[in-house]
């Protein structure tokens, strides 16, 4: 191989090749038994003039996918044992080696950096997370979900510092949820009422309370209500009845929701598909044949005659089954 120099850098053997047709020199990198290639990126990085650091790209709708062999400039056709240079960055992040992360990340594109960010967030590597955020990755929809697994508040503080919005979608572990709310997350903000058209978030959504009623604890319900969640926006009772939790947990959630003001006869219509209707919580209990839940709702004053869209009451639902 002509015009080739080898060097050892951060424990990684690199070999510089002659320039390709674009005039860019390639480096083969041997890292942890993998062969990867690096090419200086052609995409310029925007600078933060105040801090002198690259600005992270906040891309709420972006889904990062595994690049195919022709999706990145680092592809080298026909090389046995080839792995994308992304592998080197991910391995360095997993190992917690900031020196090697710097080596792989220097001058790279935002999408490339996002792969490393996901690894650092997942393992709670704060120093590496902060370094990658300063380098300017996409902060995509997956980032807060991955970060939530670490249950690390400093990780979320770092995301916030580098431009992440706490009202972006995320996960609701109690410690993390408390931090979100403290930082101004709106518990009444949800997906657009209608998915068609270019509509913004729904500011009178019950999505958060619905999710909490079906998947969380009464403590989370109380936390959301204390921060202004409006129970009259939600179908929390419906979601509690339909929850996959054990029956005793479902009954406890239903009782708690009734105690904090949930409307037992609220007729819920699907926000996205207006012709569909879940009816009342009693309709849901009848539809799912949840006898204990139906008894509790009837004891609490549920009206058997309340009709869902389409004209059926809860008794009709039970007879239909």
From TrEMBL:
Q: Does the keyword Transport apply?
A: no
Q: Cite a single Pfam family from the UniProt record.
A: Ank
Q: Which SUPFAM superfamilies match?
A: Ankyrin repeat
Bias (Polar residues):
191-209
Q: Where are the ANK repeats?
A: 277-309
User: What keywords would UniProt list here?
Assistant: ANK repeat, Repeat
Would I find rRNA processing among this entry's keywords?
no
Q: Which Gene3D superfamilies match?
A: Ankyrin repeat-containing domain
Region Disordered, annotated ranges:
190-209
The identity of this protein, by name, is Ankyrin
Organism, by scientific name, is Rhizodiscina lignyota
């Amino acid at each position: 191989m002509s015009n080739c120099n080898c060097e050892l850098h951060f424990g990684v053997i690199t070999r510089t090749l002659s320039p390709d047709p674009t005039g860019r020199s390639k480096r083969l990198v041997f890292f942890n038994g993998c062969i990867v290639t690096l090419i200086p990126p052609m995409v310029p990085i925007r600078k933060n003039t105040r801090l002198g650091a690259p600005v992270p790209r906040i891309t709420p709708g972006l889904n990062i996918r595994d690049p195919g062999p022709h999706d990145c400039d680092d592809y080298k056709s026909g090389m046995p044992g080839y792995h994308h240079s992304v592998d080197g960055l991910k391995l360095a992040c997993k190992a917690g080696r900031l020196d090697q992360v710097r080596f792989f990340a220097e001058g790279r594109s935002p999408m490339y950096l996002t792969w490393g960010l996901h690894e650092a967030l997942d393992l709670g590597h704060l120093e590496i997370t902060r370094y990658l955020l300063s380098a300017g990755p996409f902060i995509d929809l997956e980032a807060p979900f991955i970060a939530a697994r670490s249950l690390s508040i400093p990780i979320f503080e770092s995301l916030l510092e580098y431009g992440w919005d706490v009202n972006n979608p995320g996960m609701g572990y109690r410690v993390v949820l408390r931090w979100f709310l403290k930082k101004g997350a709106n518990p009444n903000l949800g997906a657009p009422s209608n998915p068609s058209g270019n509509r913004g978030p729904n500011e009178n959504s019950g999505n958060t309370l619905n999710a909490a009623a079906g998947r969380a604890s009464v403590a989370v319900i109380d936390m959301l209500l204390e921060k202004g969640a409006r129970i009259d926006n939600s179908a929390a009772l419906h979601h509690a009845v339909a929850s996959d939790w054990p029956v005793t947990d479902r009954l406890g959630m239903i009782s708690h929701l009734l105690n904090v003001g949930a409307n037992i006869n609220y007729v819920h219509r699907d926000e996205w598909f207006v012709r569909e209707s879940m009816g009342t919580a009693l309709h849901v209990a009848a539809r799912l044949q949840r006898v204990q839940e139906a008894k509790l709702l009837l004891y609490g004053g549920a009206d058997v005659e309340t009709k869902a869209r389409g004209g059926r009451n809860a008794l009709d639902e039970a007879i239909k089954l």
